Each structure stands twice: as C-alpha cells, then as structure tokens.
C-alpha cells in the first residue's frame, strides 16, 4: 500500500475511489452511438473546424480528457442577467470570439446549460451554447462551453462530446485534414 509520508493518508484509498468511478469503455461508446470504431474517422492532434455562426475557421486541439468542447469567448454578457446561474438558461448571451489568427466576431446565442467544469486550476461555472461545427464536409451540432482562452494558442478545444461517436484520435499525426 502506498502512503503519503507527510499526511499518513493512504494513496490506495484514492486509487480505489478513482477506480470505482463510472467510466465508459470504447465498446460502450460504440453501442451508445451505433458506430463501430472501424467506421470512425481518424484525426490528428490538431485540425480545423468551420463555425458557420461565426463564419470563422478555428484550429482546434483535441482533448480526450475534456468531457465537453470549449470555445474562446470574451466580453461575455447575458441579457437580463440573473445572479442565480441556472436562471440564465434559455437567455441570450453576447460574446466576442476569435480564432488563432486574431479574426474576431461578435456572437449572440442562447444559453443551453450551465456546468461546473473541473480543470487543473480547480472548478468554475461556465455557460454553454449549442454550436454548429463542420470538419471535412461533416456537420455537427455540439454543446460548447464559453471560456476566455486568450492565453491559449488554440481557441477551440474539442472534447469527448464531439469525439466519442465520430472520431478516433491518432496522436502520432499532427493533422489529417491540414491546419
């Protein structure tokens, strides 16, 4: 058994809790989606998606550890804002997004969800919208949370909510469709 020498807390307890958490095997995704892994498209670490609502092409980074897709957004303003986050679902949100080339556009979309997002810095509440995305003539409607990604080189992060039923990621490939 592994023990943290400073606190005396058993790391094994953490490992057991983590192992007991529900996970979805690749075969379960295939059953859920009705798609076999062999029928999925292979993509690399970075690709380019077109977002029709923004009329922008975004280079995106694949993050198989992220549950949901995340999009760069600044100046986020909710019309008829309520301090109770859940009360803002269904309201319109205005924000500015930009791709990695600095091309910016003002967007106005309906808030579909408010989610507690875990990341390396802790957790935070984020508003989500539904967004149409296109990659290689394949169109998707996907939940995207809004996050200021100004300090990040990739302004769109693709999570498992888009990957699971559509793609297999080959990390040895930088890009399949060109970036």
Automatic annotation (TrEMBL):
Retropepsin-like aspartic endopeptidase domain ranges (all copies): 42-174
Keywords: Signal
Superkingdom: Bacteria
Signal peptide per UniProt: 1-25
Transmembrane spans: none
Keyword Signal included in the entry's annotation: yes
Pfam families according to UniProt: Zn_protease
InterPro entries: Asp_endopeptidase, Peptidase_aspartic_dom_sf
Gene3D superfamilies referenced in this protein's UniProt entry, alphabetically: Acid Proteases
Protein name: Retropepsin-like aspartic endopeptidase domain-containing protein
């Amino acid at each position: 058994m592994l023990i943290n020498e400073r606190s005396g807390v058993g790391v094994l307890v953490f490992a057991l809790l983590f192992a007991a958490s529900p996970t979805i095997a690749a075969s379960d995704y295939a059953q859920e989606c009705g798609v076999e892994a062999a029928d999925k498209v292979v993509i690399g670490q970075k690709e380019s998606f077109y977002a029709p609502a923004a009329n922008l092409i975004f280079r995106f980074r694949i993050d198989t550890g992220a549950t949901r897709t995340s999009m760069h957004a600044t100046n986020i303003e909710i019309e008829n804002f309520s301090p109770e986050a859940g009360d803002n679902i269904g309201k319109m949100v205005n924000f500015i997004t930009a791709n990695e080339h600095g091309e910016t556009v003002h967007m106005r979309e309906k808030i579909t969800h408010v989610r507690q997002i875990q990341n390396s810095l802790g957790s935070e509440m984020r508003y989500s919208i539904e967004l149409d995305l296109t990659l290689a003539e394949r169109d998707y409607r996907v939940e995207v949370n809004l996050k200021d990604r100004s300090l990040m080189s990739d302004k769109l992060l693709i999570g498992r909510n888009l990957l699971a039923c559509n793609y297999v990621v080959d990390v040895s490939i930088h890009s399949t469709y060109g970036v």
